[in-house]
Specification:
alpha/beta; 2 domains; two-stranded antiparallel ribbon; about 15% strand; binds S-adenosylmethionine
Length: about 300
């Protein structure tokens, strides 16, 4: 069993950088190293370290350091890397190539659906496939109470609230540091989401109609196969879930079954886990099952409704 997390790492390019007009002081004008040259050196270093997307990484990091959108690196001939940006870019490239930090932890930003999140090692870097969970939430009835359990950075809860302001959206997590990050994201985005500190449903009131979850689902035995970006930098509590990767999902499914008000659940799973998780949901009383595949064709989200 191998999850997408294991294969791709948290390398994804955050949106990085500022908006089109927001060049950092000193980044333009004469002198310094031309962008093309700086990028070439960075691509070489990042590729030599074995990262999967060296050009993309180098561009996102440079855009972030210069405070510009990525497209300006290619279209603005006045851009140079000079002054404090030289050291900042060297440092970013070192963190990516030597430390193998995820790009999003270096830039501190990650795009997710229509929002941009602050990200740091307090929580997992939100993955593209997790956007499917938000889509499952979009089907909720007007005004429904929706809980994003295992919320991490708050990505799912916040993206859902941004797209469906009518919903009463909450996020919960066992990790206090992750919840602190989720709260910071909510404040920065101006989105009203409630937050709960809870081990699964232990401290969660019985008032939710829909529950979404991207729980830890990597089997302990997969540890050696994980990319260094994940293994060295992402919180282990966000990743590992026992010998079969189901030690969080199994009790969660059972606990959800006991909450009669919960009509719909959507759970993200690792590659090869969908069928087993479907069985767990069926046993818990969610007999109407649907699977949503990610772009690689892997059944990634299991959606259960009451019989
Ligand atoms: C895979 S991460 C998902 C984070 C976020 N939802 C995302 O998709 O980017 C799993 C999250 O579950 C939390 N978690 C692990 N065990 C938990 C438990 N027993 N109860 C609640 N949250 C838990 C971790 O702290 C982590 O933030």
């Amino acid at each position: 069993m191998s999850g997408t997390r294991a294969r791709t790492g948290a390398d994804g390019a955050g949106t990085g950088g500022a908006g089109p007009g927001g060049t950092r002081p000193g980044a333009t004008g004469p002198g310094g190293t031309p962008v093309k040259e700086a990028l070439q050196g960075a691509v070489t270093a990042i590729a030599a370290a074995g990262c999967e997307t060296p050009r993309l990484d180098a561009e996102v990091l440079l855009a972030s350091v210069l405070g510009v959108g990525r497209e300006r690196l290619l279209t603005d001939p006045t851009l140079n890397v000079r002054g404090p940006a030289v050291r900042a870019y060297q440092n970013a490239v070192r963190r990516r190539s030597v430390e193998r930090e995820p790009v999003a932890y270096i830039t501190g930003r990650r795009g997710f659906r229509y929002i941009e999140l602050k990200v740091d090692p307090r929580a997992l870097v939100p993955r593209a496939e997790t956007e499917l969970l938000v889509e499952a939430g979009l089907a909720a009835a007007p005004g429904a109470a929706v809980l994003d359990i295992c919320t991490g950075s708050g990505a799912v809860a916040l993206a859902l609230k941004q797209e469906r302001p009518d919903l009463d959206v909450w996020g919960s997590d066992l990790s206090e540091p992750a919840l602190a990050l989720a709260r910071e994201n909510a404040a920065a985005l101006g989105l009203e989401v409630g937050w709960l500190h809870s081990d699964l449903l232990d401290e969660v009131p019985d008032r939710f109609d829909v529950v979404l979850a991207n729980p830890p689902y990597v089997a302990d035995g997969e540890r050696p196969t994980l990319a260094p970006e994940i293994l060295r930098h992402e919180p282990p509590g966000a990743l590992f879930a026992g010998p079969y990767g189901l030690s969080v999902i199994a009790p969660l499914a059972a606990a959800l079954g006991a909450r009669r008000r919960v009509a719909t659940v959507a759970i993200e799973v690792g590659a090869g886990q969908a069928e087993r998780v479907g069985e767990l949901l069926r046993e818990a009383g969610f007999g109407s099952l649907r699977f949503e595949a990610d772009l690689a064709g892997i059944n990634r989200v299991v959606i259960g409704g009451r019989d």
